Amino acid sequence: MTPTVSTRIWDGPTITFVVPWYGLQVPGGAEFQSRRNAEELAVRGVPVEVFATVAGGLGTDWETPTFPVGHEVVNGVPVRRFPVRPRNAAAFDSLNLRLLGNERISLLDEAIFVREIIGSDDLEAAIAAEQRERIFIFTPYMFGTSYWGARRTGGRAYHIPCLHDESYAYMAHYRQQIEAARGLIFYSAAEQRLARRICRIDRIPQIVLGGGIEVDGVGDPARFRAQFGVDGPFLLYAGRRDPTKNTPLLIDYFRRYRAEGGTLRLVCIGGPGAPLPVDLRESGAAIDLGFLDPQAKLDAYTAADLLCQPSLHESFSVVLMEAWVCGTPALVHRDCPVTREFCETTGGGLHFRSYAEFAGSLDWIAANPEIARRMGRAGGAFVRRTFSWDAVLARLLDFLRTTRVMP
To answer: Cα–Cα distance between 384 and 398 in angstroms, integer?
Structure first.
């Protein structure tokens, strides 16, 4: 049986998460998981702090501050925010468009890219000044807060890379960053395999940590349906809607499914992202409920017939685990190694690639509700065994304790 964090004593330095942006309303899976890591460590009495810029998130204007420079406490976690350094946004945007198109760029262009992505001179200076007094954990890998900040730790940088099989991961600058880590912390075995394939990391301490998940919440499907006026069976999508999450494919496939007589509705929660198409909204086939409070989100997961997670690029997928805790099966894209492997390992879901497989999966779920719920419960049992906060944080502290550089 895994000992809980509450039975252990952390006698090491302050664990400091370095992220490009941080806040209760900052969207994104990596952002959410780093915030929850910090909060749960703080609750257990482990000294923790966050270094971040004043920017508000991936979809904001990085050069327009969302937060003030300085210190604050967010949900019990001390946060120190630093100004964003001046950058050539046009040069960055031009290179980023090429990378989004899966183009490989030259080493010179890479150097421009990593310089013009979001970063902070003051943050880097603070890391350099306190490198021997803290354990610094950088996440995600591709932002300047990680790339440049890690270089100021004197070889002490830990990374939670959140690595995906995408053009950025193959850039020489980022491969060298990962290869210079003191320790690597992965959310899944598939992510670790990807890192081992493209980087030389065999001699670096590493752990497949997983992500912490709330496992004790209980959803009420009747309350959800009454509160939001949702009746009948439905497919749930949770998260932002944009090409990086493969939601255009989901919308296209769902429209075809409804046109062919499919009866499941599509309910979307979270965001931000592209609005749902007018035809699907006006017909009542799809509805967007936006961001829900934690209890309403649990209610939504529990009420859904299945969760669809179509993303091709995941290193963990919090929404997948949250749905399983609520006993709801999942449908994921076959070309995402992380979510597909979780579904195959747990028996908690199906996977698709073609439209025929997508529609056939929805029809099968609708026709076999009891078997589908057993699949969801199997996924939930796996999450409770593996990804409770006590289990995850015990693994994290053990890893840091045994690999950190002593002052």
So the answer is: 20
Cβ atoms of 186 and 161 within 8 Å: the answer is yes
SS3 call for 87: coil
Angle between helices 355-367 and 369-386 (to 10 degrees): 100
- pLDDT of 7 higher than 80: no
Rg of the chain (C-alpha set): 21
Site of tokens 């992380």: 338
Residue 216 phi, psi (nearest 5): -105, -5
What does the alpha-carbon distance between residue 291 and residue 275 come to, in Å, rounded to a whole number? 14
Q: What angle do the packed helices 355-367 and 247-259 form, to 10 degrees?
A: 60
pLDDT tier, 158 (very low <50, low <70, confident <90, very high otherwise)? very high
Q: What average pLDDT does this structure show over 176-194?
A: 97
Beta-bridge partners for 51: 18, 80
Kindly state the average pLDDT of the residues 179-186. 98
The CA distances from residue 166 to 151, 191, 314, 342, in Å, are 23, 12, 11, 20
261: CB partners within 8 A, 6+ apart = none
Residue 201 phi/psi, 5-degree rounding, is -130, 15
Mean predicted lDDT score pLDDT of the chain:
94
363 pLDDT more than 80: yes
Beta bridge partners of 48: 15
CA distance 401 to 135: 10
DSSP codes of every residue in 123-180: HHHHHHHTTTTEEEEE-STTSHHHHHHHTTSSS--EE-----SSGGGG-HHHHHHHHT
* % the chain with pLDDT above 70: 98
Place of tokens 């894209």: 333
pLDDT at 66 over 90: yes
- Interacting residues of 202 by C-beta distance below 8 A, sequence separation 6+: 196
| Nearest residue to 329 via CA among 364, 294, 355 | 364
Residues 6+ apart with CB under 8 A from 273: 240, 241, 242, 245, 247
Domains of the chain (ranges; CATH) run 5-212+388-403 (3.40.50.2000), 221-385 (3.40.50.2000)
